[in-house]
Amino acid sequence: NNYADSPLKLLGSSNALNTYPSLISGFMGKASSASNNIFYCNKVKDITMNHKQVTLFNMFILNVFKILHLFEKHVLRNLRDYTEGGFRLKECLRYSPLFCERGYKPPISICKSLKRKLSTSRTNDKLDPNWVTGFVDAEGCFSVIIEISEDFKWKVRISFEINLHEKDKYILYKLQSFFGVGAVYHRPDRQKSVYRVTNVTYIKNVIIPHFTNYPLVSKKAIDFLLWSKVVEIIFNKDHLTKEGFFRILSYYVSINKGVSKKVLGFYPNILPADKPVINLPEHLNPHWVSGFVAGDGGFSIYVRSAKDYALGEKVDSRFHIAQHSKDLELMHLFIQFFSCGKVTVRSNTSTPRCDFYVQDTSFLLTKVRSHFDKYPERIRRIGS
């Protein structure tokens, strides 16, 4: 590699570059003209290289192109999100110290651009895995779908999905980028968007490992564990056997949404699988809390009557989280986490609900706001 450090010295007073300007100019998309190219070496003149010099120079050119290719492959492709439209390989050559077009000035300094872009908060915009788990605890769904075809054959499908209003579809794209699998679909007629993963291999190798390493906290963890067993059966092709299919049915019945009437009509005596016991953590992860609030939390301002006020009304603010009453213990953990707030149970609704809420203005400022200043919700709720 010594010749690569100073290749032109090997040429001495040789002027062997009458061929290479056209090669380089063509690479940069310019007309072939040696006069339009400046080579930073005063020793280059118009003569012909001998065989050894041609070989060495060819090796040098190949090395340059190889280095540029590796640079583009391993560095630039990872920086495209941080640059104005990304780079092209020929632009790297154009800006290089060895080959430069006469009178051409780059529109922006590459070094300054990279330094500025890499120093922005955008590098910190990557979703925290605990945040993702918290958001899925609030909005995610682990589904088992059992269908019967026209020839009376049963089909089993699985999916991991998150459904949101279409205005929040950018959240789904962030989650798709985080997991690196699945796709985002849109239903304009329903104003809905959904991030969905249905590929069994992706689910087994990407989705399940994430929630194994960063466990769900709410009762949705029960659905996840039962759903994971169905994934394992399908991955091993055991769902094609009668025994495997009936095992899936038992898990299917135990998952939150329960069995469909159609399936129950064919298999009225399905025995549900035992549900695993989920223990709450001693302390909630702050990133998980922010993710969960981004999905199921709310910040509201309302007016209520107040006789001791001149106008007879008072403006109040509130931070609240609503859940099914089966997660009542989790709601009490929020009191411990924020060191404030109350929990109430609503039994007058069609679905039993429980709420954690904070109304005291001083607590909203010192406890709630301080948490989200440190662990922002990042993409929803705040400012909405």
UniProtKB/TrEMBL annotation:
InterPro entries in the cross-refs: Homing_endonucl, LAGLIDADG_dom, LAGLIDADG_Endonuclease
Q: Does the keyword Nuclease apply?
A: yes
One GO MF term attached to the UniProt entry: endonuclease activity
List the taxonomic lineage. Eukaryota, Fungi, Dikarya, Ascomycota, Pezizomycotina
Q: Which UniProt keywords apply?
A: Endonuclease, Hydrolase, Mitochondrion, Nuclease
Q: Does the keyword Metal-binding apply?
A: no
Domain annotation Homing endonuclease LAGLIDADG: ranges: 133-231, 290-376
Listed SUPFAM superfamilies: Homing endonucleases
Protein name per its UniProtKB record: LAGLIDADG endonuclease
Entry GO terms, CC: mitochondrion
A UniProt-annotated Pfam family: LAGLIDADG_1
